[in-house]
Specification:
By secondary structure, this protein is α/β, with parallel strands linked by helices. Helix content is 41%, strand content 20%. The protein is elongated and about 75 Å long. About 3% of the residues have low confidence.
């Protein structure tokens, strides 16, 4: 076996395989559509089911500002933040959508019932929106304007009601 690996022919084959592999990776990286999720860019659209089984798309909110929150029940900052978001939602006339990432409907329903969450909750069972919105961690709050563009991204817990109201005021166009 050692002699076969030392043969110029086999070394050439290995080098060729390496070059082809690198070339393939470069072409894939160059042609793969990357969705930008920076302030000013269009927010990536999605279609998810809500807790009643209805399909909801981000495009359904076109013409309205929306506060999008990505969360999970195992995330302590999310657990702290969601009741505050819920209180703010009840006090302000702002569209809000909370997307649970990677959990089954029963877990999400128990959590929502426990905290009496009133805003729409969508289920992303596969957790694909983490990638789609390039979230580094949870929670992630994204403000989207009436044209569907990202106005602001806030990674991490919103722990002050005043911060939540400030975000809501930015999208409240009524």
């Amino acid at each position: 076996m050692k002699n076969v690996m030392r043969s110029p022919w086999m070394q050439g084959v290995l080098i060729l395989m390496l070059v082809v592999g690198i070339g393939y990776a470069v072409v894939q990286a160059m042609t793969e559509q990357r969705v930008s999720v920076s302030v000013g860019d269009p927010a990536p659209d999605f279609t998810l089911r809500d807790m009643s089984g209805q399909e909801v798309r981000l495009a359904d909110y076109k013409g309205k500002g929306v506060l999008l929150n990505l969360w999970a029940s195992w995330c302590n900052p999310c657990v702290n933040e969601l009741p505050l978001l819920n209180e703010a939602y009840k006090l302000r006339n702002v569209e809000m959508v909370a997307v649970n990432l990677g959990e089954d409907e029963e877990t999400v329903r128990k959590f929502a019932d426990r905290y009496e969450l009133e805003f729409p909750i969508l289920l992303d069972v596969k957790g694909e929106m983490m990638e789609q919105y390039r979230a580094v961690g949870l929670p992630l709050t994204v403000l989207i304007d009436e044209r569907g563009n990202i106005m602001e991204r806030h990674e991490g817990e919103l722990s002050e009601m005043s911060d939540i109201f400030r975000l809501m005021e930015r999208i409240d166009v009524d």
